[in-house]
Write a structure and sequence with these properties.
single chain
């Protein structure tokens, strides 16, 4: 069997990717502006965390297939926790820094003409966004297995 056929026939990968894409799709309806925004399907950050959905779905499926006491599950679980920690920690901090830098540029802009591009502020997730993404990933894994 060729490599591409094996990848496309990998049920665990397919379900995990579906959980990720579903979380991205849900973001269309969960923006701060309380309106449908199709462009949000391509953005990082926001509710729910697609990173969390992706990795918790994967961890759940690996646990169900290989056993929750297996080394495979432990490896996937550790990486899932690192990804979720990063989503709430480092990436959130970068988003806060972008907000501050944008405010500084706005302040400078009022005094003289400055050409600039806004930095992306929504790069990280709140703990709530990560939690809901994680729950979504687990639920999708349990439903579609």
């Amino acid at each position: 069997m060729n490599v591409f056929a094996e990848i496309f026939n990998n049920k665990v990968l397919g379900i995990s990717m579906f959980a990720c894409f579903l979380a991205q799709f849900i973001k269309i309806f969960t923006g701060k502006e309380k309106r449908i925004e199709l462009a949000r399907i391509f953005t990082s950050g926001g509710m729910p965390s697609s990173h969390s959905s992706f990795v918790t779905s994967l961890a759940t499926l690996v646990g169900m297939e290989r056993g929750f006491a297996s080394t495979d599950f432990a490896i996937v679980c550790v990486f899932a926790l690192i990804i979720m920690y990063d989503a709430t920690g480092v990436r959130r901090s970068v988003g806060k820094q972008a907000a501050i830098l944008n405010q500084i540029v706005d302040d400078l802009h009022h005094k003289k003409q400055i050409e600039h591009q806004k930095l992306k502020e929504l790069v990280g997730h709140t703990p709530k966004e990560v939690l809901f993404g994680a729950i979504l990933g687990i639920v999708i894994a349990l439903i579609l297995v």
